């Protein structure tokens, strides 16, 4: 069981009443904000969505807890009856800073109804209310899109919520996926699921698998002379075999603030840096690695 799932169970088990889905997500958000302010790591990242801050990963954790018979989900959330009888939570303690953050949130907001809690969160964290369908007194302001540039990003080490959060904070319109194999065991990054999540936040998705590097080429890095040789061959391929696709991407980036996406966090270890350089040569735009 993940640490995030343990935190969800802890909140449900220690709340004075079964929370609604909205209440639990907002409790999680406030607890995670508390942790970030103290410089601690947190179990979930959040994005602005229909009812203020939302976490796709937290919602998935709820679904998995229900599937494994830990909780019951209806209009409210509660421990499954068989778990209540056992009188304990799963093995593995919740780390102290997380427990203190959760306790603080329940003490301050545990008795607040869902409507008032949502009003409070949207007022205190207006950016997270920027896409909310909830009618509140918060004035939502639209942000201008980013200026044209050759943006690149890697999702290594971040959650899907953290990834999308960066896109929205950077005022981008969408992604251009240049992975050769757009599959991932990491939740939210397989092509179909990624498209689904991006579309829910009005972000576009375009795939260019042909511009990726096959995994077998990366596995043979030592035999091929390392990254320098790998990227030299890749640039040669861009110039000879994929001029039309590169020209299309250059046109897209010149007209819209979209980002070249791949896996590696370090852009110097990823072929997107080579593609970005070629696009910059064509467009004259600067390169921005997010």
Descriptive notes:
This protein is of the alpha/beta class and 290 residues long. It has a five-stranded parallel sheet, sandwiched between helices. It has helices at residues 3-14, 21-37, 56-67, 81-86, 96-109, 114-124, 160-169, 191-200, 215-219, 221-224, 226-240, 243-255, 272-283, and strands at 47-49, 52-54, 71-73, 77-79, 150-154, 174-177, 204-207, 258-262, 287-289. The protein folds into two domains: 3-129, no CATH class; 150-289, Rossmann fold, CATH 3.40.50. Helices cover 49% and strands 11% of the residues. The longest helix is centred in the N-terminal third of the chain and has 17 residues, at 21-37.
Termini separation (Å)?
Answer: 31 Å
Shape label: elongated
Q: Radius of gyration in whole Å, from Cα?
A: 22 Å
In CATH, what is the class of the largest domain? Alpha Beta
The sequence of SSEs as H and E is HHEEHEEHHHEHEHEHHHHEHE
CATH architecture of the largest domain: 3-Layer(aba) Sandwich
Write out the strand line-up for the largest beta sheet, numbering strands in chain order: 7-6-8-5-9
Indicate the proportion of strand residues. 5-15%
What does the main sheet amount to? 5 strands, parallel
CATH topology of the largest domain: Rossmann fold
The number of distinct structural domains comes to 2
Q: Quaternary arrangement of the chains shown?
A: single chain
Tell me how many strands there are.
Answer: 9
| Helix content range | 40-55%
Averaged pLDDT: 91
Q: Please work out how many helical segments DSSP would assign.
A: 13
Structural class, from secondary structure content?
Answer: alpha/beta
Low-confidence stretches: none
